[in-house]
Task: structure prediction
Amino acid sequence: MRRWGRWRKRWRYVGAYDERFMLCAASVGIGPAGETFWAVWDRRERSLRERTIPAVPLVRPQVELSGAHVRVRSRAVDVDLTIAEGEAIECACRAGDDAYTWTRKLCGVSAQGTIRIGDVRERFQGTAVDDQSAGYHDRRTSWLWSAGVGQGRDGRRLAWNLVTGINDPDRNSERAIWVDGVPVEPGPVSFRGLNAIRFGDGSELTFDSEAGRRRTEGVPLLIHSRYEAPFGSFAGSLEGGLELSAGLGVMERHDALW
Result:
């Protein structure tokens, strides 16, 4: 739980997208503390529902991530999804002189199940991203991140996980682009805020935010987290000239003192 004078951080984040809904569910732990959060964006009704809940011993969390199953249980929202298997990428990276971080990413796999909002239950059939991470990150860590799914103009299935500021060496990073389910590692990328991502070959993804999600929390001088993580749509091209005909996903800016 603690090593090299740093708390272990670990999280699992699942995002899923279809024509009607965009959602995420996550479980986070920093040393002995933890929390879960979820968000559901109804694209048709233009309505965002979300909740962040500290972990409490012996109290069942609203978010349960177990293998391929994603479950959210609250009075307002009920999510029950199963995500498919696929080819994941995995990497371990240095964090300072001695410490390390680890992550496993799986993007562009199918997700099916149901979503209940209020008294109405809808069928969900879309595509998911799955982020599992752990490690002894730097006391101050800041990153820009994006994960998304889409289709190329040539009909191939596309997905991506792109980042700067964390797990981002020039090689053997967590950056990945999936083409019909097969991942390849692109070179380093640069973010233009939460508006665009540029690749080394000049390709660029642009982002149109649909639902702004942001949160600031923590204990002064001990733990602090400030993030923006909007859902939205993407246009443009991935590295190698992989042009999108449609794309959905998330952008994130995160500053942490942990």
About this structure: The CA atoms of residues 209 and 232 lie 4 Å apart. The radius of gyration is 18 Å.
